[in-house]
Amino acid sequence: MIGRPKLVLASGSPRRLALLNQAGLEPDSLEPVEVDESPDRGELPRTLAVRLAREKAAASIQRVRGREEIKSAYIIAADTVVAVGRRILPKPDLLEEAATCLRLLSGRTHRVYTGVCLITPRDAERTRLVETRVRFKRLSNEDLESYLASGEWRGKAGGYAIQGLAGSFVTKLVGSYTNVVGLPLYETTAMLEGEGYPTHFGWLNPP
User: Fold this and answer.
1) What are phi and psi of 203, to 5 degrees?
2) The model's pTM
3) How confident is the model at residue 1 (pLDDT cuts 50, 70, 90)?
4) Rounded distance between C-alpha atoms, residue 26 and residue 204, angstroms
5) Sign of CA dihedral 198, 50, 171, 175
6) How far apart are the C-alpha atoms of 90 and 157, rounded to whole Å?
7) Does the pLDDT value for residue 123 go beyond 80?
8) CB within 8 Å of 7: residues ≥ 6 apart
9) For residues 37 and 56, what is the distance between their CA atoms, to the nearest angstrom?
């Protein structure tokens, strides 16, 4: 797409890509990176979200800057953490982990934190932390068993996807909905705009 700077999403998440597309942004490249997402001892959920976003962004720089076609790109990285109090919930791959998460979330309010890190073409770094409070209804045994059987929880922070079946569990949400999905759009586009990226370019050139 000639006429705008390059944009790289340092993630393979289809949810984050869909959110960027919703805002009219089409990354020139997806560059998922692997980092150790284990929290440090005593690390707070909000601190973890920002640290992991920064580590993902940093891990992608060498790869991106080494490729001629995207070497001057803006790089966006993010990480989402779900917490009950100070307890950080996993991104479960096992049924038992997911069941534990859902039982903790049942009938109570939890917090979703997303850290967003932007690396500019000049390698300046900008970070934002967004927090959303979400309350679940009290989950019945049927709710739990059916949701676990769906498999939707796999690899999702806190063991659920609000944009999917689990949206029917939410009784109250205070803050950004897109933050809970995985990328807070207002804050992300504001960061890009603040660093000179033309976020409305795609609006003027619809596909």
Assistant:
1) -70, -30
2) 0.93
3) very low
4) 13
5) negative
6) 6
7) yes
8) 25, 26, 27, 28, 73, 74, 76, 197
9) 10
Asked whether the beta carbons of 17 and 9 are under 8 A apart, the reply is yes
CA separation, residue 178 to residues 35, 71, 91, 93, 148 (Å): 23, 29, 18, 23, 23
Six-digit token pair at 87?
A: 């307890």
d(CA 160, CA 184): 17
> Mind listing the domains of the chain with CATH numbers?
7-204 (3.90.950.10)
Report d(CA 34, CA 45) in Å as an integer. Answer: 19
Sign of CA dihedral 198, 204, 205, 207: positive
Q: What is the mean pLDDT of residues 99-118?
A: 98
Residue 205, pLDDT > 80, answer no
How many of the other CB atoms lie within 10 Å of CB of 41?
A: 5
Q: Among the options 36, 40, 79, 93, which is catalytic?
A: 79
Residues 6+ apart with CB under 8 A from 149: none
In order of 84, 98, 179, 194, the CA distances from 117 in angstroms are: 24, 28, 14, 13
Average pLDDT, the chain: 94
Give how far Cα 13 sits from Cα of 54, 126, 172, 182, Å: 17, 21, 25, 9
Question: Catalytic annotation on 79?
Answer: yes
- CB contact set of 144 (below 8 Å; sequence gap of 6+): 99, 102, 103, 106
Identify each DSSP E strand in the chain by its residue range: 7-9, 29-30, 74-84, 87-88, 109-119, 125-136, 170-174
